[in-house]
Design goal:
With 329 residues, this protein is an alpha+beta fold. The chain has 2 domains: 2-53, no CATH class; 62-328, Lipocalin. Helix content is 18%, strand content 55%.
Length: 329
Amino acid sequence: MLKSGMVMLFGILILVRGILAQNPDLMLSSAERDSILKHYNRLFPLLGKKVIEKGFDLPYPYGANIIYFYMNQGIDINNIQLSLGDNQLKQIDFIQFGDNETVVNTVNARFDFWLLPFLNLYGLFGKGWSTTTVQPQIVLPDQTIPFESSVSQSGLYYGLGFTFAMGLKQNWISLDMNWTWTDLELLEEPLKARVTGIRYGRTFRLRKQQRLAVWVGAMHQKFTTETYGSIYLKDALPGDVIDNINNIPNQPGWNELPQWKKDLILEFIDAINNRWDSARINYGLDKGPSSPWNMIIGCNYEHNKHWHFRVEVGLIQRYSLLLNLNYRF
């Protein structure tokens, strides 16, 4: 048992040596190494002392972060279901969606720590605000009624994740993955999302303890496809389409519709005319990002061992901005 444990420890040490960046700007001088080891008594990261003895510099293990994130992305919507009041949802095929867009602003607090010299674990909690603009159209045999609708909502979210980092010659590569759950006002169930980021970069020593890391990479986003909720009719339909909807039964193609479609449309017309302020539309739909992948570029300025500031921009298909103030201890 002891022998197998020693073999495992030896294997981890070899992994650590290969994983930590070989960039000379990340190496300690003999004087710096001896100064750190003289008073080193930290539990995390595990094997941290062994790594420092090899001459590698390590960040402080614990981090408290404040993060602001902005994102603008296209949304695909399919398999829409609608109903009013207590009625069951019905699959709708006469409503189609054009270009749809979601704008998100979030602020969160994140706590992280380096479990191993190459593995960081973190948890986060925050609040988000989103505005989704859709361009649906009601498609009937002899008429198409286009309109635009915007819905804003907010909610609290929480999540957890990890970052795995390793050296690649004089550069580094990292894999970051996190899972979040967001309780939005208009949804019945929390919105589940998973974000994966891959980054390739280099860290440069500026002077003394100041360093700058730059990187390029890609990000993949996936969130819950099945969504159920409800919204007031007055918030879903703009007033300028009411006349067009009221006039649907007078169109030549009205008699070609099956009875269930007629009943549903008449129910909506009644709600528009008699319960405009109180009627709620129940909906179900499948949604997802129009482009799950996008490009990211970023940099991290390390003022000293305690204070770091990160900026990251997302480009191509999905546009984003991340600002991160990080205090390490």
